Amino acid sequence: MYFTKQRGLSKPASLILASIVSVGLLLTGCGQTATKENAGGAAQPSNEPPKAAEQAYTVKHAMGETTIKGKPAKVVVLTNEGTEALLSLGVKPVGAVKSWSGTPFYDHIKKDLDGVQVVGDENQPNLEAIAALKPDLIIGNKLRQEKVYAQLSAIAPTIFSEKINSDWQKNFKLYAEALNKKAEGDQLLSKLDQRIADFKAKAGDSINQQVSLVRFIPGKTRIYYKDTFAGFMLQKIGFPRPKAQDKETFADDVTKERIPDMEGDILFYYTWDNDKKEASQVEQEWTNDPLWKNLNVVKNGKAFKVSDDIWNTSGSIISANLMLDDLEKYILKK
Fold first, then answer.
1. Phi then psi for 251, rounded to 5 degrees?
2. What is the mean pLDDT of the chain?
3. By CB neighbour count within 10 A (0-12 exposed, 13-18 middle, 19+ buried), where does 24 fall?
4. Which pLDDT score, from 0 to 100, does residue 94 have?
5. How far apart, in whole angstroms, are the C-alpha atoms of residue 116 and residue 92?
6. CA 78/CA 121 separation, integer angstroms
7. How far apart are the C-alpha atoms of 239 and 85, rounded to whole Å?
8. What whole-number distance in Å separates Cα of residue 218 and Cα of residue 180?
9. Phi/psi zone of residue 307: left (φ > 0), alpha (ψ -120 to 50 degrees), beta?
10. Which terminus of the chain has fewer Cβ atoms in its 10 Å neighbourhood, N or C?
11. Is residue 176 over pLDDT 60?
């Protein structure tokens, strides 16, 4: 060998040296592989941007500020309006409270919630069921769940809206921010605004009709005012309310003597029932009463029954669009 002759090494020595060089090269190669794959050693500096899972953002909400790491993938939602918000933003929760009606979710969203775990109801969420899902984000409401906020926060980062607002858009924007989907949320609200503008243009003078709202529940009948989901939407669209209903408050429980206050150019009524169908009995009793039948809006065929789920209890952007569907059906019909 040329190398051996130059250095004057014996043949055995040259073989030993060659073996050492081979082992060194082998170790170097293994070291490069381990560094490349980041196996069995400390992470090496990288010029690549941090992955989405490593990013964090802070959200201000009803209980203070909460930092969320990464993109929430396993979300538990504890309000019905929050469930609608998540679905509209393309997020299927791993857990959700059951709806105020339905088995266990409202008919208009139950297909989208197939396989979602029920975690109690708005007034009494099931903490054990929530913890078992190992969520990375919980969305709830101070009015409903303030007493268990600390326990929820111990499970996962928790964001609370202040209350269930007639102005549902405030909560919707918060939930979109919590999901790191603010831009998508703003886009959905803009689309709704455009749809309302299109509706008003098509409605013309029909937008000046005074709209009455009535609700039947077990043992009670209510006239609904502006501080309700439907009341807010009617005001947002531009419909006036009858003088007796032009109030910024929530609702009044009424007796039959107040039926004349239900008068309007058009009347929408909805019924929330229980297993005993007690509200349906109330509805039948009232709508067959002579005072009801004597209302001009009834005699003119302008009293329409609509879904309580959509017009009242579900309360977010999916219902807002479905309510517009109803208004197009009844206002724009030819």
1. -165, 165
2. 87
3. exposed
4. 98
5. 8
6. 7
7. 25
8. 40
9. beta
10. C
11. yes
* Residue 8 CB coordination number (10 Å): 7
Distance CA 140, CA 215 (A): 26
- Find tokens 């858009």 and name the residue: 169
DSSP for 201-257, please give it: HHHGGGGGS-EEEEEEETTEEEEE-SSSHHHHHHHHHT----GGG--SS-EEE--GG
How distant, in Å, are the alpha carbons of 66, 123, 156, 187 from that of 127? 19, 12, 11, 34
SS3 state of residue 114? coil
**Could you tell me which of 202, 194, 152 has the C-alpha nearest to residue 329?**
202
* Six-digit token string for 6: 């130059």
5 vs 272: which has the higher pLDDT: 272
Taking residue 330's Cβ as centre, other Cβ atoms within 10 Å add up to: 14
Name the token pair of 95.
């857990």
Return the number of other C-beta atoms located less than 10 Å from residue 9's C-beta: 15
Tens-digit pLDDT profile for residues 323-333: 999 999 999 97
- Tell me the two tokens of residue 231: 């009341």
* Beta strand residue intervals within 142-219, DSSP E: 158-161, 211-217
Q: What are phi and psi of 220, to 5 degrees?
A: -145, 155
Q: What angle do CA 197, 301, 277 make, to 5 degrees?
A: 95
Please give the pLDDT value at position 276.
Answer: 87
99 by DSSP, 3-state: which? coil
Q: What is the DSSP letter of 160?
A: E
Structure tokens at 333: 């019909």
SS3 sequence of 51-97: CHHHCEEEEEECCEEEEEECCCCCEEECCHHHHHHHHHCCCCCCEEC
Q: How far apart are CA 75 and CA 59, in angstroms?
A: 15
User: Which amino acid appears at position 209 of this protein?
Assistant: Q
CB 263 within 8 A of CB 242: yes
- Nearest-Å Rg of the Cα atoms of the chain is 31
Give the Cα separation of 148 and 265 in Å (integer): 46
